[in-house]
């Protein structure tokens, strides 16, 4: 076991008191750090819960808006509008056909024959020179140097 050295009786008592005080303060610091950690965790939880509440409130408002829009616009109304749109498209197509129908079948046949003649026609190309190319490359006239636009960094 531990043998005590012979010291004056007041020294070990003061040392013991100081060590006890040190240990008490260390324990107090540990408790305080734990409490601060708990408080920080609680603050984070509260902030996260506030964000969740905002999301839920946003979803609720969005759902209410959708319900109001559904009340205003029924499926029957959408089907009616789609039908009217289809009728309008069909009517416009008929007008286009009437306007385009001003050409007779003979005109269309003549146009097709002309197109076939153009595509079948062999074009006369110029003769290719048989002489070899010159060895020396002609000098190219200098091109004016234009100032290059400066690049600007996006902010």
UniProtKB/TrEMBL annotation:
<dbReference type="GO" id="GO:0005771">
    <property type="term" value="C:multivesicular body"/>
</dbReference>
<dbReference type="GO" id="GO:0000815">
    <property type="term" value="C:ESCRT III complex"/>
</dbReference>
<dbReference type="GO" id="GO:0032511">
    <property type="term" value="P:late endosome to vacuole transport via multivesicular body sorting pathway"/>
</dbReference>
<dbReference type="Pfam" id="PF03357">
    <property type="entry name" value="Snf7"/>
</dbReference>
<keyword id="KW-0813">Transport</keyword>
<keyword id="KW-0653">Protein transport</keyword>
<protein>
    <submittedName>
        <fullName>CHMP6 protein</fullName>
    </submittedName>
</protein>
<keyword id="KW-0175">Coiled coil</keyword>
<dbReference type="GO" id="GO:0006900">
    <property type="term" value="P:vesicle budding from membrane"/>
</dbReference>
<comment type="similarity">
    <text>Belongs to the SNF7 family.</text>
</comment>
<keyword id="KW-0472">Membrane</keyword>
<feature type="region of interest" description="Disordered">
    <location>
        <begin position="122"/>
        <end position="155"/>
    </location>
</feature>
<feature type="coiled-coil region">
    <location>
        <begin position="22"/>
        <end position="49"/>
    </location>
</feature>
<keyword id="KW-0967">Endosome</keyword>
<dbReference type="InterPro" id="IPR005024">
    <property type="entry name" value="Snf7_fam"/>
</dbReference>
<dbReference type="GO" id="GO:0015031">
    <property type="term" value="P:protein transport"/>
</dbReference>
């Amino acid at each position: 076991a531990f043998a005590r050295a012979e010291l004056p009786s007041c020294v070990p008592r003061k040392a013991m008191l100081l060590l006890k005080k040190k240990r008490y303060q260390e324990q107090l610091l540990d408790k305080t750090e734990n409490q601060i950690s708990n408080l920080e965790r609680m603050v984070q939880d509260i902030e996260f819960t506030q964000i969740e509440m905002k999301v839920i409130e946003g979803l609720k408002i969005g759902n209410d808006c959708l319900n109001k829009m559904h009340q205003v616009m029924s499926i029957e109304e959408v089907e009616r509008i789609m039908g009217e749109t289809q009728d309008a498209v069909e009517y416009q197509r008929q007008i286009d056909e009437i306007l385009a129908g001003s050409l007779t079948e003979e005109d269309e046949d003549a146009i097709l024959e002309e197109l076939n003649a153009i595509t079948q026609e062999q074009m006369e190309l110029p003769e290719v020179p048989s002489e070899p190319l010159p060895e020396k490359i002609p000098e190219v006239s200098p091109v004016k140097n234009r100032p290059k636009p400066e690049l600007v960094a996006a902010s």
